[in-house]
């Protein structure tokens, strides 16, 4: 299409030539003074492109591929991460995945082969006192002395290697080695502790299961930090795009100046939506906008963008989805707009609409629920 139009316009060099060329799928491209400008799309097409980039229009990839494309699936609540993947593949296979702290200092499911993207240099138990967690505990005045911290780190690694891999088993081993009650509060702190120090070093990782258990990470080659960052940025603008500078800065927790530097290296295309500039590194995906999709708790369609700017999230529903304790609830997306929350346990599903959504939309949501769960009961409730 672009080559054809360039040929038509090649002979026209008048200053001030200004054309708007309509393209398929609610897109347009501007041609001004011999230059092709940003592609222009509407909000509906922006949402469709994001759904397609995040594998919510078609199911062709494995869970490991999805986890790679989306820069991990946030996993402090494991069932949410598993549904993030399953809702995009139809599969519950977790082979090749591990759970560890990555982006934004939170737990994610990632492919084990991607570990060098997040841990650029594999460490050892002796390195725990150089981690951000230990620095934070030192600043708070509650860190263990370095040699004591290292001793427990060595013991934990040894126990995991010998097969004693559960959190409770590791706690008992440390108690048998003389860990006091006060030391236990630090070594097994709920926000990380020594396990939270060993994981970002690439020494251990959590197993992908509800019961807290760990394993050793396989040795891996180091990766240059700048190269790793650019690789993740490329994945972001490929699968989360079109996304804005503010969206990417929010997702990676970096300044917008860093995002601009990445974009220069990525050869990203500019996309205009209602006068605001977005960026993507691939063509618009195939597939029609679905009437209804269930999104997981902490779904990438919500975490991938600045929440105040996310077109699928009406401002009046924001606190019903992102609560003040840091939870991001599972939601139902209807025609590109979040209209309800949901939760499921043992086949019993509760649906909580944010607004009057009508009988047809309710039926579509119920059919979507039945697609993913062995439903015993569906109840519509007030929030």
Structure, explained:
- Helix content is 38%, strand content 19%.
- The chain is of the alpha+beta class.
- The chain has helices spanning 2-9, 43-53, 63-69, 78-89, 115-118, 132-139, 146-162, 167-176, 181-187, 193-198, 225-239, 245-252, 256-266, 300-303, 318-321, 358-372; strands at residues 18-23, 27-32, 35-41, 73-74, 97-101, 107-111, 204-206, 214-216, 269-273, 276-280, 292-295, 331-334, 337-345, 348-353, 377-380.
- The strands form four sheets. The protein has a five-stranded mixed beta sheet with strand order 1-2-3-9-10. It has a five-stranded mixed beta sheet with strand order 11-12-13-14-15. A three-stranded antiparallel beta sheet has the order 4-6-5.
- Among the domains are: 2-41, no CATH class; 125-216; 292-380, no CATH class.
- It is globular, with a radius of gyration of 24 Å.
- 37% of the residues are buried.
- The longest helix is centred in the middle third of the chain and has 17 residues, at 146-162.
- Helix 12 (245-252) packs across helix 13 (256-266).
